[in-house]
């Protein structure tokens, strides 16, 4: 009967709260009444904190038992020295029980550590799953937004324009090569013509210079310059005088 009254009072209190809340979502009211619904990650963190707290408490108790163990060992030695064998036996039994408790605490601590590691592994796996889910969602969004026909068209246009550019570059290279080749051929032909003309002119000039007095004078002048260069003497002076007389005649 008492439980029924409590339920009725509690239900009436909730109904009163719901009726008095304006513009508030019903879920918020239930969270206020029954507590916020925890996500799996929050539950894992809560359990992890509880395990850590329990391990710290076990560690404190284990240290107390170890201190008691040391004290019992000293008491046993003291009782044995004093010949109190009854007290020594009782203290020895307490020491055995204390050591058993220490072993149990160590076992419990090891078990809790294993559970804590499992929880950590679950949290890591859950975090990895969340990351993979987010990555999958992102990839799905990108795939849906990707227009494959448009990408294919862009790739084809790029390939076509690239081919056109290559063809134009080849045409320009061929034109440049042809121009340079023609120029080289023209230069070669011009050099041949000039060489022929110079050869012909050179032959005629030499012949004329040998036939005319002026040619003789020029040849003698050349000889004179050569003689002066090599240091000619009186014979060269006589030769120069005869050349001058021929020139006046």
From TrEMBL:
**Which segments of the protein form a coiled coil according to its record?**
41-82
Q: Which domain of life is it from?
A: Eukaryota
Reply yes or no: does the keyword Coiled coil apply: yes
Q: Among the record's GO biological process terms, what is one?
A: vacuolar transport
Keywords associated with the record: Coiled coil
Can you say what this protein is called?
Snf7-domain-containing protein
Question: What is the organism field in this record?
Answer: Cyberlindnera jadinii (strain ATCC 18201 / CBS 1600 / BCRC 20928 / JCM 3617 / NBRC 0987 / NRRL Y-1542)
